[in-house]
Design brief:
10 strands
């Protein structure tokens, strides 16, 4: 059974940084394309960024140049470094396996102006 546990969220001010982590278990982590997704209040969950098994990445336009995804396959862990945060980045952030409906509990990121 796939289990995803996100952590690292918090309340910060605009311009600050946060680093999110996602610990995965129940799958051969290194083989899968992983992603970070977010869901703002009253909105659908949306893709933020993907990272393939080879390390290739694809970012949503609004986070390009500010967010950096990485993975440590030895630790089965996915990371999201978020810099120059904006109030519109406020959301619950989830990690996920591309094409899967398995989700963790998410981690809340709140950016005040």
């Amino acid at each position: 059974q796939v289990r995803l546990v996100e952590s690292g969220g918090g309340l910060v001010q605009a311009g600050d940084s946060l680093r999110l982590s996602c610990r995965a278990s129940g799958l051969t982590f290194a083989r899968y394309t992983m992603g970070w997704y977010r869901q703002a209040p009253g909105k659908e969950r949306e893709l933020v960024v993907l990272i393939g098994s080879t390390g290739s990445t694809r970012y949503e336009d609004s986070v390009k140049g500010r967010f950096t995804i990485s993975r440590d396959n030895a630790k089965n862990t996915l990371y999201l470094q978020m810099d120059r945060l904006k109030p519109e980045d406020t959301a619950v952030y989830y990690c996920g396996v591309q094409g899967s409906s398995n989700w963790g509990q998410g981690t809340q990121v709140t950016v005040s102006s």
